[in-house]
Structure prediction request, 260 residues.
Amino acid sequence: MTSHEPRPRAAYAVFVLIACGVAACGRVPGQFEIVQNQAPQPGCLIDTSESIYRGDGTLDLSLVQPGAGAAYLAFPLLKNNLPSAGGTGPDTNQIQMHSFAIDIGESRYGALPPNVKALFDTLNSASHDSADYALLHYSVPWTVSVSSGGGRAATIVNAFPVDLAARVSATGDATVSRTSMIVNVRIRAFGNTDTQDMESDPLDFPVYVCAGCLVANLLACPYMVQPSNLGNPCNVSQDSYVDCCSLNGDLICPPIVSQQ
Prediction:
């Protein structure tokens, strides 16, 4: 992940007014948007239907594996509202997306627990080109073409790094209660058309953080029957209940099942 420095909105607006006096650029609200966070279907298929979405997330720190690619995955649904070019020629208003920017911080729906608040304050005060700062503010490459005239694209992005999950877990503030804390994940998409750079309207997505709240059943390994709860199809540490078994003190989720 690459660190980025979030641009203050007021200062950025002034910059856009000056810069766009000589060239088409920046963000015009409503042109390029992240409609919502999609809910993955079986097999980790991500649909572009606006009726299949998740309004908030749950991250269970006890289920995050050290080798995982992400503690929490988001599935932004992109939409290009630029006018359709029409005709049979090239789509000059097609947006070629190239990256996401992620900013993780305190939610307006609840204060962070004291130790996590102190952790976030420390990470935010680090040098903006440091690995610590990049745990909360980072860019991720992603390529997709989004057609003009209301074209949509389903995407996927790391919305909570594994290293950040480990540090939050180490504070001891997360409990088995789903509401032990809530964070805000702000997601923006960046790309360009033939004539201008594009920044999407941001999506502010609330994620509840707990330790053990998604573990449905816990037995010794192996299970003698098929488990009822298989967890999220894309990432076991988020959003869906999962059955687990314990092996030498480690959680195996979904559980090992006896072949007999």
Q: What stands out?
A: Residues 2-213 form one domain. Residues 6-24 have pLDDT under 50 and may be disordered. The longest helix spans residues 9-19.
